[in-house]
Design goal:
The structure is a homodimer. The first copy, chain A, is of the alpha/beta class. Chain A has one domain: Ribokinase (UDP-N-acetylmuramoyl-L-alanine:D-glutamate ligase). Chain A is built from twelve helices and 14 strands. Chain A has a nine-stranded mixed beta sheet with strand order 6-5-1-9-10-11-12-13-14, with helices on both faces. In chain A, strands 3-8-7-2-4 form a five-stranded mixed beta sheet. Chains A and B meet through strand 4 and helix 4 of A and strand 4 and helix 4 of B. Strand 4 of chain A pairs antiparallel with strand 4 of chain B.
Chain lengths: 327, 327
């Protein structure tokens, strides 16, 4: 095997999170689906922002969070995603580059549409509800899929959220086709149940034909397979693609292959603060352990540890290096 | 007494903080004075930013932090300070307005100079070292001093940091003169030892002639008075102006009037996370209690409680409402 520069190349939305505490009543009054992600336009994003209290800004984006996690664990990663030429775009780039992720996607020219933002509304139960204005991310196109970068990646990891934009879809298709050509593994996250429900047939075809590794949480895998409960979903996941990693919150995670089911229970968490990024950091731990040649069970266990760490702080980017979690 | 709309009108720098963890070695290698604030130009700010790890953005500014604290305690406040017409400026305004502070200062036109930022570098001992690019704040001028606002304020609270810019100084002079005319109390914070050392004679004249209430920490009051230790500084502070409130970290705070010295010991803190904003939030508690007609000792005690709260989180804006601290 030739040596490649990057363990993982992530492709996803380039988003700055706007974290704020809100009440359950606020989520209900604004008709946001608690615990889910809603896409909003710029006007609605601004309106919601005007209604929430003081916030903290922190770089986000699901696969970008995973890539930051991999770098924090000591892995080598790169990222492709679209920001605007504005202050938040510079913040997003800084936070990824400074943790050691190669990130040189060309910003969209000008400040409109702006860099994407995600209002992450954290309720007293530490659950997060998200409203995302996709902004410049919608402009990610085939031109942004950097062939030399894919040639240097052992795994290409793609965000399901991207499926919401036609431009993005073409970019993903190109990335998958190049990844195949260069012998890279293709990993994908279902991202969100709304995402799955909207693109179910396309997702199923993608999973069955193009993927080596699928990440999903319990709700997403149920939505994809039509399963009614967790065990049924695990059964239905078998054979969908070579490896399916399913996160199940406090129950831990399950890895399903054609022949086996590996279960990795989660350790209890000292203080649950904010569940933002739990799935993203699970993927970071899993992908990093995999790149290090660990067993699937060990991959799930490191994934659990990373997820357990991130839910004890605000935001989805680890405030302290994750390296200590690598046993 | 006529009823005024605002307990406190704050005038200070409008800054977005960029919070990041660094090592002591980094502070030393960059020749930053540990625990102090250094003014840097845009190029140096960008260079330092390129060298630090992932960061979190959070609205800051010393007196602005105080005003956010007062609002969080349930007090009525307004703020005057200058941002640019850019994304960080909008974030600054949102975070102040959304907590209930009246803030309608006109942004400087255009995006250059940008909204001020402060790199808040937190070392493992929870101490913070700051590098501030003052940006649009330098443009705060007499035109920004809104006379009707001052007419509606019971206390005008001014930031010593403003003394670094000539434009700002003229603005402060106007604010003090108007405050006097409308019968408002004038409060001032020395802000930083470097600030005091640079402007010692002007600060002394200001304190002795124009102030009703002075806030300082131990180092700052020593710098102002030339005292060699804390007790000598307390003695030297007497008579400087009617009330001097001195914060002394884990020792708590001391209020010095012409006749008396009130000492308010600090309660031990469960977990010290980041000392950013300790002085700002002390001022918030003190000013709020004062507006509520409390005794000077009670003012110092609420100040201590607010400071004790803010050092148990990252950043100088309270993540949870401070109202619970009002006994």
């Amino acid at each position: 095997m030739t040596t490649k520069l990057y363990d993982t190349l992530g492709i996803g939305n380039a988003i700055v999170d706007v974290l704020s505490h809100v009440s359950d009543d606020f989520i209900a009054a604004q008709k946001l689906g608690k615990g889910t992600m809603t896409l909003v336009d710029e006007a609605r994003s601004k309106q919601l922002y005007s209604l929430i209290g003081p916030a903290t800004e922190c770089s986000g984006g699901s696969v970008a969070n995973t890539m930051a996690g991999i770098a924090s664990l000591g892995g080598k990663g790169a990222f492709i995603g679209k920001v605007a030429d504005d202050q938040l775009g510079k913040i997003f780039a800084h936070d990824l580059q400074s943790v050691g992720v190669r990130y040189h996607s060309k910003p969209a020219p000008g400040a409109q549409p702006s860099t994407a933002n995600c209002l992450v509304l954290v309720t007293p139960d530490a659950q997060r509800t998200m409203a995302t204005y996709i902004g410049a991310c919608a402009l990610l196109s085939e031109n942004d899929i950097d062939e030399p970068l894919i040639a240097q990646a052992r795994t290409v990891y793609i965000e399901g959220y991207l499926w919401n934009e036609a431009h993005n879809k073409a970019a993903i298709r190109k990335a998958i086709s190049l990844a195949r050509g260069y012998g890279a593994q293709v990993a994908f996250t279902l991202s969100d149940t709304f995402c799955v429900n909207t693109h179910r047939d396309e997702f199923l075809s993608l999973v069955q034909n193009d993927l080596d590794l699928l990440f999903a949480n319990e709700a997403e895998i149920k939505a994809l397979t039509g399963a009614m409960d967790a065990e049924e979903a695990i059964t239905a996941a078998r054979g969908l693609c070579p490896t399916v990693a399913i996160t199940m919150s406090e129950k831990g995670s399950v890895v399903v292959t054609n022949e086996h089911t590996f279960r990795a229970p989660a350790k209890p968490v000292a203080k649950l603060v904010d569940t933002t990024g739990a799935g993203d950091l699970f993927a970071a731990g899993f992908l990093h352990a995999k790149a290090e040649g660990k067993s699937l069970l060990e991959c799930a266990e490191l994934g659990n540890r990373c997820a357990g760490e991130i839910i004890q702080q605000m935001g989805a980017r680890a405030m302290k290096p994750l390296k200590a979690l690598v046993a």
